[in-house]
């Protein structure tokens, strides 16, 4: 189980399939997702590109569902795209059921990956994707503010309701050259983290799954730093 590290796949897949200024309305399914969530009401509309900051900076579960529905029409259709993309990247032991990483099981398997596969996904995001620059810009943004939108006959306009999201990736300030990272936690997954760092023309990726359970929330930062330093040396 990999918890919200799932969201790096949700983000890169959305970026690669996103139409400019695409707007999505929060559905009942999105609105009912558990915390951590943006807390938008059913019917509120957002630019999908804004929701990507909600997804990656604060790890909002409702935004992940709204993004999936906005890109593919349904969560199920989006998850099919996630699994197909994972195969294209070279993942051999990854199985997505949700776009947000909440613990889930279907008739075949449970929502899961391996540290190796997760590293391949992050490496793809920061090095190979045609949308890598946008992905990196989102991941390194410290704070982001956006509004909901309404459609009118003459176009789209903001309603003035403002949302603010703040980056929860503490590793951004722990080492020089951090490119991107994503935390995660569920009862099944434990504390998780996947991060990428560039140093002297080389890129390093560290993936940690089940890196402690409460009250050991900080283990992932210490272990990531130790592994990054080992790779650099």
Helix-strand blueprint:
Elements: H1 7-17, E1 23-25, H2 28-31, E2 45-47, H3 48-57, H4 61-72, H5 75-89, H6 115-128, H7 132-139, E3 143-152, E4 155-166, E5 178-186, E6 190-199, E7 202-208, H8 219-232
Helix pairs in contact: 1-3, 1-4, 3-4, 4-5, 6-7
Question: In words, what does this structure look like?
Answer:
This protein is of the alpha+beta class. Helices cover 38% and strands 23% of the residues. It has a 3-stranded antiparallel β-sheet with strand order 5-6-7, sandwiched between helices. A two-stranded antiparallel sheet has the order 1-2. β6 (190-199) and β7 (202-208) form a beta hairpin. α4 crosses α5. The radius of gyration is 17 Å and the shape is globular. The protein starts with 6 loop residues before the first helix and ends with a helix. The model has no long low-confidence stretch (mean pLDDT 96).
Radius of gyration: 17 Å
Derived from helix and strand composition plus strand pairing, the structural class reads alpha+beta
Number of helices: 8
Order of strands across the widest beta sheet?
5-6-7
Helical content stands at 25-40%
Shape: globular
User: In this structure, how is the largest beta sheet organized?
Assistant: 3 strands, antiparallel
Beta-strand content bin: 15-25%
Mean pLDDT: 96
Number of DSSP-assigned strands: 7
Euclidean distance between termini CA atoms: 30 Å
Give unreliable regions as ranges.
none
- List the helices and strands in order: HEHEHHHHHEEEEEH
In short:
This protein has 233 residues and is an alpha+beta fold. It contains eight helices and seven strands, in the order H-E-H-E-H-H-H-H-H-E-E-E-E-E-H.
């Amino acid at each position: 189980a990999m918890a919200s590290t799932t969201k790096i796949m949700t983000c890169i897949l959305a970026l690669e399939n996103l139409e400019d200024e695409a707007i999505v309305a929060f559905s009942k399914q999105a609105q009912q997702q558990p915390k951590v969530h943006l807390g938008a009401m059913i019917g509120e509309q957002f630019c999908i590109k804004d929701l990507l900051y909600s997804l990656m900076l604060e790890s909002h579960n409702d935004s992940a569902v709204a993004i999936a529905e906005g890109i593919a029409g349904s969560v199920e259709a989006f998850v099919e795209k996630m699994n197909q993309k994972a195969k294209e990247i070279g993942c051999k032991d990854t199985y997505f059921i949700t776009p947000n990483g909440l613990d889930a099981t279907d008739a075949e398997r449970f929502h899961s990956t391996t540290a190796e596969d997760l590293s391949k996904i992050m490496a793809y995001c920061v090095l190979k994707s045609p949308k890598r620059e946008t992905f990196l810009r989102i991941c390194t943004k410290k704070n982001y503010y956006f509004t909901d939108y309404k459609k009118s006959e003459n176009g789209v306009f903001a309603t003035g309701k403002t949302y603010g999201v703040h980056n929860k990736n503490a590793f951004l300030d722990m080492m020089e050259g951090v490119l991107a990272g994503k935390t995660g936690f569920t009862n099944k997954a434990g504390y998780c983290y996947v991060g990428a760092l560039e140093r002297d023309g080389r890129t390093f990726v560290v993936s940690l799954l089940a890196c402690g359970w409460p009250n050991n929330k900080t283990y992932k930062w210490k272990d990531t730093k130790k592994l990054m330093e080992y790779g650099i040396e």
